[in-house]
């Protein structure tokens, strides 16, 4: 299919709406696997539905046509070592931790650790529930980059979590690997983003057999000092920022909130093999992005090309 034909197909599907129902969950799982990633949320920071939204995108939820979507988050589980971690502490952390406990692993811990990507509301504010007004945590490991560490230590109410030993901040360094145990390791890497309060990182998560990228927030791919195509080819799964589907989605200048449009990413990979496209799992959808819905013609058109749209509960073995 030529690029112009693909673009026409996408535009047509966008115009005809989102009422058709399809099946689109892609699960990479193995019942014998002891280490895996589970999707605990797919929405952008403010969730779905979004506060104050009276557009058709959120009206679908209030009319009972769509389910609530939790904020973008990964759970990392090691059944062999009886350990579990979160990637990002979202406003939905209470429900996400409960899901990990009831559906995956109850090891008598709230969580074995939390890896933060950056200081935007959907990625760290769940830490508030570790404080004395809530669980009153005891030295819960929180892995952060240096600027993020400084931000938490020097700004309330987050600093209280440190003073009261609710959390135990463990400093990460760019491209320096953390060994979680003999089965799993994690490597942070810097990505360009709006870094008002902290730097922003993505993560490479490695198991014994497979590996994954997690990049829920980034500016355009061409301003990164790495080649995203090369990075995707080196792993088995790539959970990539898909905040907005295409330009014009919002009634504002979208250049002020740079993210790779879903259509930009698919165009970038259009000449790659289906095997490479299958590795891409879009995540972190704004409430306006039609791909946040349980089904949509646009999702079908891109899935037919090989791209993936995981749902909450999807599993990916490591």
Descriptive notes:
This protein has 318 residues and is α/β, with parallel strands linked by helices. The protein has a single domain, classed as Ribonuclease Z/Hydroxyacylglutathione hydrolase-like (Metallo-beta-lactamase, Chain A, 4-Layer Sandwich). It has helices at residues 3-16, 56-62, 93-103, 121-124, 146-154, 158-163, 228-233, 262-268, 274-278, 297-303, and strands at 35-41, 73-78, 83-87, 114-115, 140-144, 167-171, 178-179, 185-190, 201-206, 211-215, 237-241, 280-283, 315-317. A seven-stranded mixed beta sheet has the order 6-5-4-3-2-1-13. A six-stranded mixed beta sheet has the order 7-8-9-10-11-12. Helix 1 (3-16) runs antiparallel to helix 10. Mean pLDDT is 89; it is low at 1-27.
Overall CATH class: Alpha Beta
User: What is the first-to-last residue Cα distance?
Assistant: 33 Å
Q: Return the domain count.
A: 1
Instruction: Give the strand order, joined by hyphens, for the main sheet.
Output: 6-5-4-3-2-1-13
- The poorly predicted ranges are 1-27
Helix content: 10-25%
Instruction: Look at the helices and sheets and give the structural class.
Output: alpha/beta
Tell me the major beta sheet: 7 strands, mixed
Work out the helix count: 10
Radius of gyration: 19 Å
Q: Which shape, going by the Cα principal axes?
A: globular
Mean pLDDT: 89
SSE string, helices as H and strands as E: HEHEEHEHEHHEEEEEHEHHEHE
**Fourth-tier CATH superfamily name:** Ribonuclease Z/Hydroxyacylglutathione hydrolase-like
